[in-house]
Amino acid sequence: MEMGLTRALLCILLLQGKLWLISCLAHCSCYTFHDTNRNRWAESNQDCETRNGTLVSMETEDEWNFITSEIQKINSTANINNDWFIGLSIARKELEKYNSLEDKRKAGWSWTSGQKLTINSKWQRNEPNNRGRYDDYCVVISKNWPKGKYGFIKDVNCFFQHPYICEYDAGNKVNTSLNPVCWSNSSSKIRLTSCTEVNIPTTVITTTTSKIDATTTLPVQVYSIERTTAITTTQSK
Ligand SMILES: *[C@@H]1O[C@H](CO)[C@@H](O)[C@H](O)[C@H]1NC(C)=O
Ligand SMILES: *[C@@H]1O[C@H](CO)[C@@H](O)[C@H](O)[C@H]1NC(C)=O
Ligand SMILES: *[C@@H]1O[C@H](CO)[C@@H](O)[C@H](O)[C@H]1NC(C)=O
Ligand SMILES: *[C@@H]1O[C@H](CO)[C@@H](O)[C@H](O)[C@H]1NC(C)=O
């Protein structure tokens, strides 16, 4: 999902005394992880929607890497296999047009964002294998399955209940009691707690030199980093 407000702003990040220019044409989203087995796929997506999100869409390998690393930090109590619903599905009649595994992987799987699946190499061995019933096939991401493969995906019955991952685009407020984590493709080494704040581990930080003279005519968003956590966000024209 696109970063709404700060689109087309030039961003400057001060880190380790260096000026970093990061593009504000960035993709930034926040995510919440719902470790419950109360909801089927559609209900999971509905729950995300009531929070102004959707089930997660991983359009790029970078975003997939981020989600994969985040689920490594969780031991699901609701699902012993640590399989999480993601926002990927396909209509049954679409998938059944294809016979070979290669073709089924490339069939019209789509994300809740509307984009097509491009990370075809992340299927588990022999997946998808039509584990669905009813009219759709739905997909889960596995923490570590087969053993040693992290974040690989497989299709499951949409009427099974799994934990699930919601995604919120940059313009949305996310309920902090759900411990959201955020990710931007232009600052992927920094752990974010929202798309407008930058939270930097204290060890990384050295005191920054001074203030920035913004000589550009573009609106500038400045993340100025102080000694401990990072934090002020100011904006000037
Ligand atoms: C980040 O995502 C945006 C929007 O999809 C794209 O325009 C930009 O090129 C991406 N930047 C990087 C560094 O991948
Ligand atoms: C969802 O967005 C609407 C419209 O911006 C807003 O009124 C509502 O409070 C938001 N809901 C949540 C749970 O954030
Ligand atoms: C999850 O479980 C494993 C194995 O029991 C353990 O080593 C690990 O520390 C646990 N991780 C968390 C985040 O609780
Ligand atoms: C935040 O989420 C928690 C847990 O789902 C819920 O109890 C609480 O009402 C939510 N707060 C808001 C402001 O939506």
From TrEMBL:
Keywords: Signal. The keyword Signal applies. This is C-type lectin domain-containing protein. Pfam families: Lectin_C. InterPro entries: C-type_lectin-like, C-type_lectin-like/link_sf, C-type_lectin/snaclec_domain, CTDL_fold. Residues 26-167 form the C-type lectin domain. SUPFAM superfamilies: C-type lectin-like. Residues 1-26 form the signal peptide. The keyword Signal applies. It comes from the Eukaryota.
